[in-house]
Amino acid sequence: MENTDIRIYQLEDGETEIIVQLNNETVWLNLNQMVELFGRDKSVISRHIRNIFREGELQKEAVVAKNATTASDGKKYQVDYYNLDVIISVGYRVKSPRGTQFRIWANQIIKEYLTKGYSINEKKLSQQNEQLKELQESVKILGNVLSYQTLTNDESIGLLKIISDYAYALDILDKYGDTLNIWGE
After folding, report:
1. H helix intervals, 12-94
2. For the segment 10-25, what is each residue's pLDDT rounded down to a tens digit?
3. How many CB atoms sit inside 10 A of residue 171's CB?
4. Coil, strand or helix: which one is 178?
5. Which of 67, 64, 72 is nearest to 4 (CA)?
6. Are the CB atoms for 92 and 103 separated by under 8 Å?
7. First to last CA, the chain
8. Residue 6 in this model has a pLDDT that exceeds 50
9. How many Å apart are CA 130 and CA 132, to the nearest integer?
10. C-alpha to C-alpha distance for 62 and 84, rounded to whole angstroms
11. Predicted structure pTM score
């Protein structure tokens, strides 16, 4: 499983933020992360997961992945990671204040996606816009400097680095616009 971290969900109190792995167009949480997300005991979450498979709602082979994890004792263990289908199924079964918050959040995202055809991660878009503004300012300043003096070799390399970063940021924004995120924060 690829180890690309993204933030999926933050409680209104700001205390719990779950970092998940993104792989094959879904997110993955282990049992301990679901315990934290829903604020319930491990036995409760495990029971819901078992029932999801026992009732045939989901097929275990399609929604569970094993991933090697190094524990605090230095040993490697195979840990089950559950994809978004399992997370949502557990979220609609668990009875807790955090479970309720999750359902409200999930329903909002689903409604937005169904009515608009997409959902935007406002926080991520805002951060990228700020980065773009900073890069635009840097390029403007460099343009002013260039009109008043000749650059040394080191200054030229620095200028090329800034321009390269600027182009990279524009590329990220362009890609973001093509693949709007369904995760709101």
Report:
1. 31-38, 42-54, 60-63, 84-91
2. 556 666 566 656 666 7
3. 10
4. helix
5. 67
6. yes
7. 24
8. no
9. 5
10. 11
11. 0.58
Predicted pLDDT at 57: 96
- Give Cβ neighbours of residue 51 (< 8 Å, ≥ 6 apart): 93
Residue 141 and residue 164: Cα distance in Å, rounded?
16
Please tell me the distance from the alpha carbon of residue 98 to that of residue 12, in angstroms, as a whole number: 10
Q: Where are the alpha helices (DSSP H) in the chain?
A: 31-38, 42-54, 60-63, 84-91, 97-116, 122-148, 153-178
In sequence order, what are the beta bridge partners of 20? 6
Residue 3 has pLDDT above 90, yes or no: no
| Separation in Å, CA 171 to CA 50, 100, 175 | 43, 38, 6
Q: Which amino acid is at 56?
A: G
Residue 151 is given by DSSP the state -
CB contact at 8 A, 83 and 28:
yes
Residue with tokens 């929604």: 63
Strand partners, 7: 19
Give the pLDDT score at 97: 86
